[in-house]
Write a structure and sequence with these properties.
With about 280 residues, the protein is α+β, with helices and mostly antiparallel strands. The chain has a domain of about 160 residues: Beta Barrel (Thrombin, subunit H). About 35% of the residues lie in helices and about 25% in strands. It has a six-stranded antiparallel beta barrel with strand order 1-2-5-4-3-12.
């Protein structure tokens, strides 16, 4: 018994202090009275404990409520981010559709102004290497595309078909080093030959005499004398015209009218052509 009291002495004392006010209240017949010394002692001991328990429970409750509110806010923010991403995707899709409609309207407007039955094709591949600058389109022999046919956009010349199979064709770009186009300066009607420089950005103006009237900014169009491209197609704009002290010809570059790195749709002109052998035997890797 003594060992039990010694072992649980502190819990017993605290329990007695907590029970004493109840016993005192019951023994007084529920009548109000002034607190005794023992009552005051019990209240002095139990009040901090009660306040601590109240604070702790309040803190736990506040923490739980805060966690629940924070988790709800996090889930709501996540839902907002998902909705925003979906809205951005839908907006980008609309912008792409609008840009495509603009391009197709330009192509349709060009087609309506011509007498040829152009074949509209979409670019599905690009091979801008120094060895062979070309792009691949989603129209081929099954659609009437043949090697040697000119390829263009409403802005100007893109190149010519060099290989066609069932459902696709390869188009050599006019910037390829093997490309040759009969051209004329639109302002002065000076004839020239435009060749690719192989860098994907520039062309070279050849066979124009030093004394011919040519200057920066002149527009270059196809002459129709090469047996490939019809006359009057926009090739590009003249740049860096130089007249060397020796030699018969001036030198100049031509900036292509078409941004070849951004071409997405093209027109193939299905005309019967008599082509030089070198123009149709070039094949991609």
């Amino acid at each position: 018994m003594f060992r039990f009291l010694s072992r649980y002495r502190e819990p017993l004392i605290v329990g007695a202090l907590l029970v004493w006010p109840l016993v005192s209240y019951l023994s007084s017949g529920h009548r109000g009275r002034e607190p005794s010394v023992v009552d005051r002692l019990v209240l002095a001991v139990s009040s901090p404990v009660q306040a601590g328990l109240t604070w702790a429970l309040g803190g736990v409750t506040g923490t739980v409520d805060g966690y629940v509110a924070l988790r709800g806010a996090h889930e709501e923010a996540q839902e907002c981010r998902v909705a925003l991403a979906e809205a951005h995707a839908a907006l980008n899709a609309l912008k792409e559709a609008e840009a495509e409609n603009t391009r197709l309207k330009a192509i349709l407007g060009y087609v309506e102004q011509t007498t040829e039955q152009e074949i509209v094709a979409r670019v599905i591949g690009l091979n801008p290497t120094a060895q062979f600058q070309s792009l691949r389109i989603n129209r081929g022999e099954d659609d009437g595309v043949r090697a040697g046919m000119p390829v263009l956009t409403p802005d100007g010349v893109v190149g010519q078909v060099v290989r066609a199979v069932g459902g696709s064709a390869d188009v050599m770009l006019l910037t390829d080093a093997s490309s040759r186009i009969g051209a004329v300066l639109q302002r002065t009607r000076v004839r020239a030959t435009v060749t690719g420089l192989g860098d994907g950005r520039r062309l070279s103006l050849n066979l124009v005499r030093r004394e011919d009237d040519a200057k920066d900014g002149d527009e270059v169009v196809t002459s129709g004398t090469d047996g490939i491209f019809p006359a009057g197609l926009h090739v590009g704009t003249l740049r860096d015209v130089q007249r060397p002290a020796v030699g018969m010809f001036l030198s100049a570059t031509v900036k292509p009218a078409v941004d070849l790195a951004r071409v997405e749709e093209v027109l193939v002109i299905p005309v019967a052509l008599t082509l030089p052998a070198a123009s149709v035997t070039r094949e991609g890797p």
